[in-house]
Amino acid sequence: MLILVMLWKEIVDNLRDRQTVFYALLFGPVLLPVCIGGALVAGLKQATVSYDKPAVLAISHLDRAPNLIEFLRSNNIDAEAAPDNIEASVRRGDVPVVLEITEEFSEALRTAHPAPLIIHVNDGDKHSSKEARKISALLQVYGQSLNALRMQHRGIDPSVFNSVDVRLQDVSTNGFRGQLLASLLPFLLIVAMVMGGFYLAIDTTAGERERLSLEPLLSLPMPRYKLVIGKYLAVLVFVALSSVLTAVSVFLVFQFLAPEMAGGELSFDAVTIFKSWLLASPLIFFISAVLMAVAASTRSSKEAQTYLGLLMVFPMAPFFILQFVNIKSLNTTMALPMLSQYQLLERVVLQDTINMTHITLSVVGTSFAAAALLYSAVRWYSRERVL
Hints:
Number of strands: 4
Mean pLDDT: 79
Order of helices and strands: HHEHEHEHEHHHHHHHHHHH
Number of domains: 2
């Protein structure tokens, strides 16, 4: 009963604190996924070139290359006359790109010389660069087709010039971009959890010590461990709520991302997000215990903010390490908090098979670490110098 009273007191007190509510319920769960996830989704959409979507291309001197125009039309590119001032129009963004068919184009084709084409592009405009890449790729295909026809016309087999046939077979189901997106989910969840309990942990420990409200609490006829557990549960509620809101935000953000844009078989549907949250849920207890243990050992709110601010590096570290180092999912790594959740959640998003032993080790290892940290916080509050 005393634990529940302490829990309710801490929750009510911190709901009045706008800073705590902002970071716990808005910044980490909503703004962070929208800013990071939204920017990544928008970037992938901008970088992905669709050859099936019909488009219109401004072409200067359409009459000089009727066969090229027909080839582009067969690839969902409709031609239109280019504006008079090509460079100014592309620079202003009136048209994304302009394909200029030079005066020497027809003659060069007839004499079997390289036929010059000019693509006017504004590299400072992402849409213009994207359209230029698309047109360049199509023109390369057109050029290869003409090369093959030229050699066949002269009785030469085009395959004679292909001395080596190198074939790259990617056995992964995700690719690099898929791996990056898969690791983004645990990153957002873990960072949001830390932000969710950050200020509450400081206020309920070092903050009360500064306000001189901790001594009256310690003078109450209740065991110290119940006091710590009540405060711990309050932090736990905010961390858990932050993780749930983050999962919802990630689900909503990634509905705008088609799986093929990531270069792999990714899934960000409701079932996947829920499974990911379940696998990450032991971190709710671990992160709450970390915040409580560190904040309880400090003497002031400023000192607690300094130490916990440095602690923010740890939930981010696995995200950056896994981008450059290939760490295999072994029994030893699965017992490590945060790292094991990163690896498990990546597998869920990539729709890979997960070993139940790895799940068990992750839950047990994270729970044991959380219990040890909570025990250290209880021991710290049991000392007289806690005041």
